[in-house]
């Protein structure tokens, strides 16, 4: 066998025995952002089409493999950050930058909202010269837009080693949805972002898309039971409702507005006779209200955009959240996974792949 033939033969063997996953990974790129508390930075990016993974971690500092306690002490000079793995054929780096700016206060050089200290500074960590150029251009455009009264101080820094944070920090918004929402509200982040971006919050999940119809239209659109439950905070009968025993794969949306609420992945058999879920699909689409009717204290769950009564949340659910979202079927519309694209919810297809 000739040397030339040998080389070709070896090349073919390499191609045949290299796992396909290694080739698939070649098309993905990394983006790294620091925007204060990393709990609040994962969720906005994880729901984007083209994003395959978002990790919380630490970067920009001096110590290898730092712990949360060390970073929090401020001695390592690391930033709390997120690292995004994305497919540039499906989502551009410019789009990621646009989402990033809408999560932070870029004029604060001492932290973010209630969180103060070096670890909560904001920064874009670029991985190549093209990312650097785009980041600098987007920063300049934002500065010139006049949206902020003060100068943009977010740094554009060359990427340094990224260290994944402890497991309990990963997907915190999924593991502890109630604590996550309470933290966001209490930190002042949500109030600030709503004030700054109120006129341009036209994202895929905003209130402009998920409007509530007028009262007269709702009467025509909804069944008497759906109207009673969603508009009058009624309760349907257990075991005699549409979805309590539904085992199909798909997502549940608000019957009034269509805003995404739950995934079938998080549905479980609670034995109560109502659809029960361990966590929301989109935590930002929920409002919790203290309910003291019937001489008891409960937490009512309502949809954010339509203000529909959905049900209640209890702390007697299974792991990992320990929560049980007990929801009325009459508040929900179910979209089977095969129809997600057709119904305008194509971004959720990856949940079932």
UniProtKB/TrEMBL annotation:
<dbReference type="Pfam" id="PF01641">
    <property type="entry name" value="SelR"/>
</dbReference>
<keyword id="KW-0732">Signal</keyword>
<dbReference type="Pfam" id="PF01625">
    <property type="entry name" value="PMSR"/>
</dbReference>
<feature type="active site" description="Nucleophile">
    <location>
        <position position="326"/>
    </location>
</feature>
<feature type="domain" description="MsrB">
    <location>
        <begin position="215"/>
        <end position="337"/>
    </location>
</feature>
<feature type="signal peptide">
    <location>
        <begin position="1"/>
        <end position="26"/>
    </location>
</feature>
<protein>
    <recommendedName>
        <fullName>Multifunctional fusion protein</fullName>
        <ecNumber>1.8.4.11</ecNumber>
        <ecNumber>1.8.4.12</ecNumber>
    </recommendedName>
</protein>
<dbReference type="InterPro" id="IPR011057">
    <property type="entry name" value="Mss4-like_sf"/>
</dbReference>
<dbReference type="GO" id="GO:0008113">
    <property type="term" value="F:peptide-methionine (S)-S-oxide reductase activity"/>
</dbReference>
<dbReference type="InterPro" id="IPR002579">
    <property type="entry name" value="Met_Sox_Rdtase_MsrB_dom"/>
</dbReference>
<dbReference type="InterPro" id="IPR002569">
    <property type="entry name" value="Met_Sox_Rdtase_MsrA_dom"/>
</dbReference>
<comment type="similarity">
    <text>Belongs to the MsrA Met sulfoxide reductase family.</text>
</comment>
<feature type="active site">
    <location>
        <position position="37"/>
    </location>
</feature>
<dbReference type="GO" id="GO:0033744">
    <property type="term" value="F:L-methionine:thioredoxin-disulfide S-oxidoreductase activity"/>
</dbReference>
<keyword id="KW-0560">Oxidoreductase</keyword>
<keyword id="KW-0511">Multifunctional enzyme</keyword>
<dbReference type="InterPro" id="IPR036509">
    <property type="entry name" value="Met_Sox_Rdtase_MsrA_sf"/>
</dbReference>
<dbReference type="GO" id="GO:0033743">
    <property type="term" value="F:peptide-methionine (R)-S-oxide reductase activity"/>
</dbReference>
<comment type="similarity">
    <text>Belongs to the MsrB Met sulfoxide reductase family.</text>
</comment>
<comment type="function">
    <text>Has an important function as a repair enzyme for proteins that have been inactivated by oxidation. Catalyzes the reversible oxidation-reduction of methionine sulfoxide in proteins to methionine.</text>
</comment>
